[in-house]
Amino acid sequence: MLRESHSIKHPEKSIRRWFSDDFFDLIVWMDHHGSINGFQLCYDKQGNERAFTWTGKNGYSHERVDNGEMNPSKNLTPILIPDGIGPAEEIVDLFLAKSKLIDAPIRSFVNDKLREYKCLAAK
After folding, report:
1. DSSP label at residue 77
2. 19: which residues sit within 8 A by CB, 6+ positions away?
């Protein structure tokens, strides 16, 4: 079940809230009034980690997380690599099941955007 792990509030800037469980990481960016500017939903963290991202400025993207080198003495910072259209339908259902403890406005917003992406991806 997704639970808030931490949030960062900048007095005159944005707020970042981070929710996490064993499968998902959800990072939500908000303005100081509480309006959502964007979010990133990372999934399959233990397997082939990927991320859906939405921002008001850039719209939707789906990426694969490249964890860098597998050598522990020279591991590079993970980066996002474009990964085509993601499995939105599976992720929407799983997100709804695992996000019951998230504030209703955030949960609804992310769910709506994932469903919108699912419709766009089906075209």
Report:
1. P
2. 2, 3, 4, 5, 25, 26, 27, 28, 99, 102
Number of domains into which the chain is organized: 1
Query: Long-range pairs for 116-122 at CB < 8 Å and ≥24 separation?
Result: 117/52, 117/54, 117/60, 117/88, 118/88, 118/89, 118/92, 120/60, 121/85, 121/86, 121/88
The answer to pTM > 0.85 is yes
Cα angle value 43/36/83 (rounded, 5°): 35
Q: Which domain holds residue 64?
A: 3-122
CA distance 17 to 10: 12
- List, for residues 7-51, the tens digit of each pLDDT value: 887 766 789 999 999 999 999 999 988 899 999 999 999 999 999
